Amino acid sequence: MIRRTTTIAAVTWTELVRLKVFYFLIIFALLIIGNSFFLARFSFEEEFQMLKDIALGAMSIFSSLLAILATATLLPKDIEDRTIYTVLAKPVSRTEYLLGKLSGVFLLLTLAVLLMGAVFAAVLLLRTQTLLHSAQIEMAALPPAELQAALDKIRATGHDPNLLAGGVIILVKAWLLAALTMFISTFATSTIFTTITAFAAYFIGHLQATAREYWLAVDTSGFFTKSVLALVSLIFPDLQAFNLVDDIVTGAAIPAAVFWKTVALGAGYIAVYTALAAAVFHHKEL
To answer: What is the C-alpha to C-alpha distance for residues 213 and 257, in angstroms, rounded to an integer?
Structure first.
């Protein structure tokens, strides 16, 4: 089973790469590099904060878009090209086929986040070194102790260990969206329907926290309203729970408990949506 799933994942990876889905990385690189020069007029604290905010926000948006758009094309395209019939005619179960497709998307998303993270890290390192060099020249007249304290502050601001945790959360969120999109595609009638529904779920997921607060409010009126909001909270993932960018930008440390809880939440969503996708696809008429 593992060998067959791995083979399908490798084929899926190759198909997605041929679609030139990595073009968005060029946009991301230009955005981050151009932003670093624009922010040179601010203080180093403001520059690093805005750079982290824009970079992490772009990583989250681009990875989410890639997760939905790449996954939405898989099943409809294979059915249209009749490739799925050739694969399932061999000793390959529908579950293995589905897991292989999803694993290929996961591999693509992992590489995409790693590449975006590498670009971000390179720009951040370059700006840190540039600021350190400028500070050494501008503050040369200061006492050695004060100069060293200023340099250490720049290094500490530019080397934030929370950035790695933020990248992991962004990747888990992208995996979750891929699993959700795969589930939708198992009962959808076309790529367009899958894409629109997945984006609708994306926006609803970001508003779910607000809906849940409204649902839990004491003065909420109407059993029907409460029932609808409860159903939304159960069906759609709480994507706002994966938004840790604001804490990272402000320099607040992400507690290990919060990090692992968020990862576990993402893993739970992925497992549920994958199981639902396998169940629906098993009974789908092809």
So the answer is: 23
Give the separation between CA 90 and CA 120, rounded to whole angstroms: 44
- Which one, of 164, 130, 168, lies nearest residue 52 by Cα? 164
What are the structure tokens assigned to 42, written together? Answer: 């601010």
Which residue do the tokens 């939440």 mark? 265
142: which DSSP letter?
A: S
Rounded to an integer, what distance in angstroms lies between the CA atom of residue 8 and that of residue 248? Answer: 37
Task: Express each pLDDT in 2-26 by its tens digit.
Answer: 777 788 778 777 777 776 666 666 6
For residue range 125-182, list pLDDT tens digits in order: 777 777 666 666 666 666 676 656 666 666 666 567 778 888 899 999 999 999 999 9
Cα separation, 123 vs 51, whole angstroms: 9
Domain ranges of the chain: 2-282
Side-chain-facing half-sphere of 274: CA atoms under 13 Å: 20
The sign of the torsion formed by the CA atoms of 46, 28, 199, 71 equals negative
This prediction has a pTM of 0.84
Provide the token pair at 93: 């179960």
The separation between the first and the last C-alpha atoms of the chain, rounded to the nearest angstrom, is 22
